[in-house]
Task: inverse folding
């Protein structure tokens, strides 16, 4: 009997959290390729049967762990204008992709998706970065103010940062405010101008 008088539930939640933490740690320490379900189970202190209760593959575990952290790390406060909100989001995205263990996990999944169709399908069906970008875009362009489809808008917003970071360029050399201003001009109503800096 666990806490709150519910049989097994707190232990299950603790085991699930342990697995998610373990996968974050292991992808940084040994890389995606060397990570195994057996290793994840050992690191989390659970059985492999416990893992199979919730996930079928290490990619599924890694995506869930990355998504949880991405929602927190990419949830930027409103700044009062579209360009400032988008610039703050892009700054958080740079940190996520270059510093965060969850970002390392996400990059590992992106790399694996180039060779493994099942991993690519996972990312297409549940993309935490696309979701976070859509959230800030919708807040910046309420109602019908967005002139392009949301899927195109998210690609337009995050694409330059992805290219810059994943091709090994120096993140500090990227002008995020210029990217945000350009996004406002291209995605907003015709003739839209970024707010004053």
Result:
């Amino acid at each position: 009997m666990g806490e709150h008088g519910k049989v097994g539930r707190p232990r299950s939640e603790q085991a699930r959290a342990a697995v998610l933490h373990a996968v974050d740690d292991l992808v940084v320490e040994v890389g995606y390729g060397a990570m195994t379900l057996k290793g994840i189970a050992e690191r989390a202190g659970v059985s492999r049967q416990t893992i199979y209760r919730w996930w079928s593959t290490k990619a599924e575990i890694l995506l869930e762990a990355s998504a949880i952290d991405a929602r927190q790390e990419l949830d930027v406060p409103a700044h009062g204008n579209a360009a400032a909100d988008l610039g703050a989001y892009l700054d958080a995205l740079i940190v996520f992709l270059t510093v965060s263990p969850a970002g390392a996990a996400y990059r590992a999944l992106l790399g694996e998706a180039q060779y493994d169709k099942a991993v690519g399908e996972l990312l297409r069906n549940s993309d935490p970065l696309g979701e976070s970008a859509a959230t800030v875009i919708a807040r910046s362009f309420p109602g019908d103010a967005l002139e392009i489809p949301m899927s195109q808008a998210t690609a337009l917003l995050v694409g330059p940062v992805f290219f810059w970071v994943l091709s090994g360029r120096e993140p500090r050399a990227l002008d995020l405010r210029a990217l945000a201003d350009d996004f406002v001009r291209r995605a907003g109503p015709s003739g839209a101008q970024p707010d004053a800096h």
